[in-house]
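Reviewers of the previous submission asked for a worked example of the structure-prediction workflow described in the proposal, so we include one complete record here. The input consisted solely of the amino acid sequence. No template or homolog information was supplied to the procedure at any stage.
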Amino acid sequence: MKSNRLRRLILICAKDAPRLDAGSVTNDLLYNKIKRIEDKIEIYHDNHGNTDFMESFKAYMGEKGKPDLFCEYVGPTFVDSANEPIIQLADFVAGTLLKIHDTTQVIADKQIFNKLLEPHKIVIENWPLFKEYCIETETENKWDAPIEEAMRREISNYFVEHDNSDEEINRMQVATLMMLLYNHDYEKNKPIHADAIIDRLEQVGYAKISKQVFTANIIGAIRDKGIIIAGGHDGYRLATTQKDIQDYMNHDKSIIEPMLYRLDKAIDTIRLATKGDLNVFEDQQFIRLGRLATAYKNNGVPN
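From that input alone, the workflow returned the following structure tokens.
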């Protein structure tokens, strides 16, 4: 487990979901992610199941794994797990992850196991994202459930629109949302620092980006689609409750109101200097800003 070469991609899947297509969807999700990370893929599969299953899986992967200019494919190779350490390790890790993510099991050492595996985590995906298969959070606030449902719907739509996009930045946005969604569902919505997300994206095979690019082109672009991501000194997290929304608005308020106050003071200085003859808000590019500043001034400024 100390080896830096060990990496894990996790797909948390509700097997009884009516939209699940007998493995092809999960195979697609995992294969497409692996292909982005490695330029050579070798698949070793535990020698279980009947002959029809193994032959169908081999045919499926043979079609998906056709070599191209970017990735070499070998396999799948069926092996006896009793004689193959890599399969034994995969069984151990998968069994541990099942206990970590299965909400019906109460395990005292769950956080210890999660911490042990954390350094080897690359990508975690939940599938499907539909409400009936989401983790239920107990709350007395009547607005929390509809807020979370709406947020999940927006995230699901975002995935459908951008997951297979030709634009790398769109796929990076999806990967970022996956991390935030995982932390919401399994880490009590623990915030994630921008640096940690950027490093994880690089591990998945995306280009290294600056924090400024991350904030503007990933977090900002996601927010532009109506998905509310709360951000603070402790990192980013999904806003899925009324309190989360209030925290998000208070954070924005702490930035926007001082800016409007300073703008108002600057404009007063210009008016005094020009004896009121220059109104910078008459410039076409500043008309909307002028209306906002005027509305804010008419409703009072902070003490």
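The CA atoms of residues 282 and 290 lie 8 Å apart. We consider this example representative of the routine output the project will generate in years two and three.
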